[in-house]
């Protein structure tokens, strides 16, 4: 239903209506209250109106009339001639002359007018008036209804009432007609002379003064003479001192009814120096007041230059207290609902010299307007004074104190700009959009991570059991500060939980609370705590009792104690960006205690705005399409908190990774005045696939929608707007908008930004668009047989489909999430030590049990007996599992088989290589005696395992639909695990830094096999790292792949190549006389011919040992003695004279001819060539930032695997070896 009814071209003069009714009119003597005999006069009401306006909301006019009618009937009129009523943009003004009974207006005229509006609609302005035909103001009445937007409607109603109070009919409206006729009862006054009632001069005049009456609007001299009970000639005589009296009569003017002087009615100042005061009544105007008090209009203007609320004679306010003499201005009358300024009820007059505007300042130093209302928008904060204090230009509400919306307290920048990310630890409870907290280590832009949310129990103990899996990972996070957040909307407002935080801040509890929280933070070595209580002191949170007004003060007490308990650790709070909810916070004092404040400058609008006329300016029902991250409103909120006394450097400004969505009422109507459907508690917006909540949708889901058929733009609120499916409207922040906002806030010297929430930004690495679409169909992540999945389904039967397609179609990511979560819960609840004896296989056995797999599913070991992990499972339709479980178990088995293949190959390689050790020494270091030692450094084992594991896993996991970049990262991560395990084992068993060649191959082989066993056990042990690694390996069905093959011959070749790639350069080191072999960088490209001939090398050596690599010419060389030969016995020597010394040429390293593929004999040294050694040396030199002496790169780090995972890793696998690179003249200085 639309919120207004349009009336177009409606003719009010022809609408059927009741046109005759009776209106009782009485004359009352105010002294005797006796009723006079009445006379009946038939009179008519006139209906006047402007054309219809489709923006008019008819119910507003009816409501305003009903309120006014109720006041007349139940409140009592209390001698007031004018009343005004307002609802939304509609104002109603009523004037009733002194001789008209108010209940007649209520029961007859207003009731008839309400019926008229209900049947015929409401034009822009509509009036009913009884005026003219010689009536004075006592017998005049009228009602004006005005729907002009803003303050103009009330001003227009006041203008009409002012005209009727002067016995004048209103004109200027476009149409008029006869509204109805009735009989007016009138009677003659019993008392001929009445006296003034607005000052002490109304008493009987002195003997030399005449008796007086006051002029009523519409009176002529004849009327006055009749009221005096004298002849017109006598009236003229008694008032002869006033020139042109009959043509200049003014309402309220005193005239004589007897002989004597006209008394002086001018009020006198009070003895205390204050001016004589007068309270303005409805229908008053300055000439009337001046005439009644023997003053001129100019006198009133002069007396009131400093009077509160004095806006001049052209704009008098009902009940305003004004001066009618010289003297200090008075205190203004109170306004019943004023909460700031001098008109707040109960305010006492301050000492002389005190600025009245400074009385009763608003909370948070917010702006106070002339009506005593507090706010932070321009409507409250713009000073439009007319000169006198407490005044404002017509149509504005004018600010009187703390005016302006500028951001203050921001002169200095913060020491560093913070970037805070909130992490929803419960995110795996939703069907998708899962994120692991460990992923945040890669987010270098984050300075702080707020882990949401820990809980307090009823006994105020810290509880993270509901998020223990992620919390245990969070503790290990490295990089950003780790902040544990408490509270949140649910724990703050849920009917079963809200009491905990309210009780926690009470005086008798807060010390215990502070100690418990601080102890927990220190125990787990965290960096700080964040309290997100929503909201202390709030009176209107649905479904829970009104909060205690002392909450804010108590909250400060808890924070003060907690800061003391934390020592140097961080403390922060989250605070709302709403004036209404921030009011109870003593935020200025809180800012002095905490390190920073998370300022929630989001959710500025939402479904809850529906039916709230104050929520959205210009939107009577509140249901207009407005952005929850509107920049203008955000800047107003930033002004509010800094004006409240909080330095900008302590304010962390909110940005979002979610949008607020609405169901549009009308297709194509997308602007800020367009409306949405639903109610304040029910959104009809489409739910997100993962977030599953109407009205709330993540950036990841928004991006997924935007990539399809949708319309997107940035609106005037600096928000991104998305419209899809014709009537789905979303406001959010894109990455570019976030960057723009961050730059703005940084330029204003705020302390940083906070993003809710980092897990809403992108889909996880296991979540592709195909899976999201599947989940979108039913809203849940189902995967079991009972959910409709069968072993007969096509993705199970047809292995020719890509592994990834099969994996997604059977919901294997959902199955893995459930199986892994079940294991983590079991491990946590039972307190399992996964590294304890006999526990290595509990993880794989638990997964197999849940997926209805084999018994003895011992994937963490290479057991001799029956091992279910050694064999492929068969798909069976069981109630508690499904095809996805079968896929996962087969993937486990494939990973286990991969490790076992490595283990078996290494175990068998020793026999084939042992006999080559002596030959290696004879070939590459022939001058070394048998006692010489190879420098097999501790890193050798680790590098070897890493080097052969990486290409091996790479070949297995490169399926036809895998993503190369992601696979490379995963392979590097897996191989680095192996290198880490191997390095640990080698370091634990080494006896000396050197190991002799003889007999050492067997030891190395044993260590390799032991490393692979340990690698396998660690991969399947079931701790957090293990679960993550296995999850990464099986993702996309990489190991549920019928194309997987294990070529042992390739693996053996790979191992031999690694082995000799390391040992040959080591042999050259041992056999070198002056220096070992090295790679010379010629400085020339590959096209240069003999660039170093006769200078450093003989031409024949250059031709033999020159190699081209990546477009540059290198040489593999060894020194031949010293740099220069000065021995006289040597040809070319000169007997020691340095100037005559002959340069020694570099030569080929020992045995290099055996690495020429053309000259290799029965044994090929693992297939290593001189070209391989050059390429490996250059890559190692580059990886060490073009420096020598780095030794083997640390292959326990994933970043050092790029060289192994190129397009042809088998050719570059020897990219890390200890062979130095130098330019010729640098060699002897390396």
Automatic annotation (TrEMBL):
Origin: domain of life: Eukaryota
Every LysM domain range: 211-257, 276-324
Annotated catalysed reactions: Random endo-hydrolysis of N-acetyl-beta-D-glucosaminide (1->4)-beta-linkages in chitin and chitodextrins
Example GO BP: polysaccharide catabolic process
Location of the Chitin-binding type-1 domain: 337-405
Pfam families reported in the protein's UniProt record: Chitin_bind_1, Glyco_hydro_18, LysM
Record-annotated disulphide pairs: 362-374, 367-381, 399-403
Record keyword Cell membrane present: no
Entry keyword Hydrolase: yes
GO MF, one example: chitin binding
Gene3D superfamilies: 3.10.50.10, Endochitinase-like, Glycosidases, LysM domain
Assigned keywords, A-Z: Carbohydrate metabolism, Chitin degradation, Chitin-binding, Disulfide bond, Glycosidase, Hydrolase, Polysaccharide degradation, Secreted, Virulence
Domain GH18 residues, every copy: 417-779
Family statement: Belongs to the secreted LysM effector family. Belongs to the glycosyl hydrolase 18 family. Chitinase class V subfamily.
Name of the featured protein: chitinase
Source organism per UniProt: Gibberella moniliformis (strain M3125 / FGSC 7600) (Maize ear and stalk rot fungus)
Lineage: Eukaryota, Fungi, Dikarya, Ascomycota, Pezizomycotina
């Amino acid at each position: 239903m639309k919120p207004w009814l349009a009336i177009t071209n409606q003719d009010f003069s022809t609408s059927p209506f009741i046109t005759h009714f009776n209106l009782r009119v009485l004359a009352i003597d105010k002294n005797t209250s006796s009723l006079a005999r009445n006379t009946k006069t038939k009179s008519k009401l006139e209906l006047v109106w402007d054309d219809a306006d489709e923006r008019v909301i008819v119910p507003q006019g009816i409501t305003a009339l009903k309120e006014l009618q109720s006041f007349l009937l139940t409140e009592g009129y209390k001698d007031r001639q004018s009343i005004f009523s307002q609802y939304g943009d509609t104002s109603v003004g009523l004037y009733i002359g002194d001789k008209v009974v108010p209940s007649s207006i209520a029961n007859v005229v207003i009731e008839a007018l309400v019926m008229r509006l209900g049947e015929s609609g409401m034009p822009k302005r509509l009036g009913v008036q009884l005026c003219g035909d010689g009536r004075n103001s006592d017998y005049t009445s009228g009602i004006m209804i005005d729907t002009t937007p803003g303050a103009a409607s009330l001003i227009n109603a006041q203008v009409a009432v002012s005209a009727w109070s002067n016995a004048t009919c209103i004109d200027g409206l476009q149409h008029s007609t006869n509204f109805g006729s009735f009989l007016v009862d009138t009677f003659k006054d019993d008392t001929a002379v009445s006296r003034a009632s607005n000052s002490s001069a109304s008493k009987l005049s002195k003997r030399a003064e005449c008796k007086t009456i006051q002029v009523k609007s519409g009176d002529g001299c004849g009327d006055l003479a009749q009221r005096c009970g004298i002849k017109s000639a006598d009236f003229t005589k008694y008032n002869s001192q006033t020139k042109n009296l009959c043509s200049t009569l003014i309402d309220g003017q005193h005239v004589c009814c007897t002989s004597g002087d006209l008394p002086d009615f001018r009020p006198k100042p009070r003895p205390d120096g204050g001016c004589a005061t007068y309270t303005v009544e409805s229908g008053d105007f300055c000439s009337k007041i001046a005439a009644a008090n023997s003053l001129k209009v100019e006198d009133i203007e002069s007396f009131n230059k400093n009077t509160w609320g004095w806006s001049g004679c052209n704009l008098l306010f009902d009940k305003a207290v004004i001066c009618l003499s010289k003297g200090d201005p008075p205190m203004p009358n109170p306004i019943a609902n004023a909460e700031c300024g001098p008109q707040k009820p109960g305010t006492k007059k301050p000492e002389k010299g005190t600025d009245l505007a400074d009385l009763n300042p608003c909370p948070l130093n917010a702006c106070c307007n002339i009506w005593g209302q507090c706010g932070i928008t321009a409507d409250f904060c713009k000073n439009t004074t007319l000169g006198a204090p407490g005044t404002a230009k017509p149509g504005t509400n004018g600010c009187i104190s703390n005016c302006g919306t500028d951001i203050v307290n921001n002169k200095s920048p913060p020491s560093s700009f913070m970037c805070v990310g909130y992490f929803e630890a419960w995110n795996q409870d939703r069907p998708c959009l899962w994120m692991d907290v460990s992923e945040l280590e890669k987010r270098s832009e984050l300075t702080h991570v707020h882990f949401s949310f820990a809980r307090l129990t009823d006994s105020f103990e810290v509880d993270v059991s509901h998020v223990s899996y992620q919390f245990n990972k969070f503790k290990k996070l490295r990089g950003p500060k780790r902040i544990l957040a408490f509270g949140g909307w649910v724990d703050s407002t849920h009917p079963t939980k809200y009491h905990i935080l309210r009780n926690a801040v009470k005086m008798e509890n807060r010390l215990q609370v502070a100690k418990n929280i601080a102890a927990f933070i220190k125990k787990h070595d965290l960096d700080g705590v964040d309290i997100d209580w929503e909201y202390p002191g709030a009176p209107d949170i649905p479904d829970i009792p009104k909060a205690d007004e002392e909450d804010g003060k108590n909250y400060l007490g808890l924070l003060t104690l907690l800061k003391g308990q934390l020592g140097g650790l961080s403390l922060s709070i989250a605070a709302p960006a709403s004036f209404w909810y921030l009011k109870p916070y003593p935020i200025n004092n809180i800012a002095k205690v905490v390190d920073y404040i998370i300022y929630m400058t989001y959710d500025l609008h939402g479904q809850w705005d529906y039916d709230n006329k104050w929520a959205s300016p210009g939107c009577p029902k509140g249901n207009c399409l407005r952005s929850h991250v509107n920049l203008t409103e955000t800047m107003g909120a930033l002004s509010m908190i800094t004006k409240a006394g909080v330095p900008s450097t302590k304010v962390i400004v909110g940005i979002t990774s979610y949008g607020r969505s609405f169901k549009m009422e009308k297709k194509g109507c997308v602007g800020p005045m367009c409306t949405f459907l639903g109610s304040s508690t029910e959104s009809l917006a489409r739910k997100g696939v993962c977030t599953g909540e109407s009205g709330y949708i993540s950036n990841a889901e928004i991006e997924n929608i935007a990539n399809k058929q949708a319309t997107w733009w940035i609106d005037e609120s600096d928000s991104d707007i998305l419209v899809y499916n014709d009537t789905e409207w979303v406001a959010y922040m894109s990455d570019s908008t976030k960057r723009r906002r961050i730059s703005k806030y940084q330029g204003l010297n705020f302390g940083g930004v906070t993003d809710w929430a980092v897990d809403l930004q992108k889909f996880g690495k296991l979540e592709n668009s195909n899976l999201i679409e599947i989940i979108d169909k039913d809203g849940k992540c189902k995967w079991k047989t009972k959910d409709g999945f069968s072993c007969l389904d096509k993705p199970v039967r047809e292995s020719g489909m890509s592994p990834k397609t099969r994996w997604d179609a059977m919901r294997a990511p959902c199955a893995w999430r459930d199986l892994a979560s079940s294991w983590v819960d079991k491990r946590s609840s039972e307190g399992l030590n996964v590294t304890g004896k006999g526990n290595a296989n509990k993880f794989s056995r638990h997964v197999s049990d849940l997926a209805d797999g084999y018994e003895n599913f011992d994937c963490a070991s290479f057991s001799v007996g029956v091992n279910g992990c050694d064999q492929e499972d068969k798909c069976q339709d069981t109630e508690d599992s499904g095809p996805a479980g079968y896929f996962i178990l087969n993937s486990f088995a494939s990973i286990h088989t991969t490790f076992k293949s490595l283990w078996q190959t290494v175990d068998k390689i020793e026999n084939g290589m042992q006999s080559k050790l002596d030959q290696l020494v004879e070939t590459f270091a022939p001058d070394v005696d048998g006692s010489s030692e190879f420098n097999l450094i501790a890193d050798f084992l680790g590098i070897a395992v890493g080097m052969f594991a990486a290409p091996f896993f790479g070949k297995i996991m490169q399926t036809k639909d895998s993503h190369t970049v992601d696979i490379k990262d995963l392979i590097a991560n897996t191989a680095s695990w192996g290198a880490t395990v191997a390095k640990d084992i080698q370091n634990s068993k080494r006896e000396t830094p050197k190991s002799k060649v003889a007999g050492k191959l067997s030891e190395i082989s044993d260590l390799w096999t032991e490393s692979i066993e340990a690698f396998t056990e660690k991969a399947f042990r079931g701790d957090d790292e293990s679960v993550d690694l296995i999850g990464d390996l099986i993702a996309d069905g990489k190991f549920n792949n019928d194309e997987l093959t294990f070529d042992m011959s390739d693996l053996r070749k790979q191992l031999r190549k690694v082995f000799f790639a390391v040992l040959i350069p080591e042999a050259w080191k041992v056999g070198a006389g002056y220096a070992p072999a090295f790679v010379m960088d010629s400085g020339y490209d590959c096209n240069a011919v003999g660039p170093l001939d006769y200078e450093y090398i003989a031409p024949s050596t250059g031709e033999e040992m020159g190699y081209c690599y990546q477009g540059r010419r290198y040489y593999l060389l060894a020194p031949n003695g010293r740099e220069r030969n000065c021995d006289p016995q040597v040809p070319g020597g000169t007997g020691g004279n340095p100037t005559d010394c002959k340069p020694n040429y570099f030569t080929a390293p020992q045995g290099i001819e055996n690495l020429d593929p053309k000259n290799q004999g029965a044994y090929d040294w693992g297939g290593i060539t001189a070209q391989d050694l050059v390429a490996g040396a250059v890559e190692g030199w580059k990886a060490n930032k073009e420096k020598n002496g780095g030794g083997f790169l640390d292959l326990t780090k994933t970043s050092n695997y790029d060289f192994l995972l190129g397009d042809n890793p088998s050719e570059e696998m020897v990219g890390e070896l200890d062979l130095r690179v130098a330019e010729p003249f640098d060699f002897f200085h390396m």
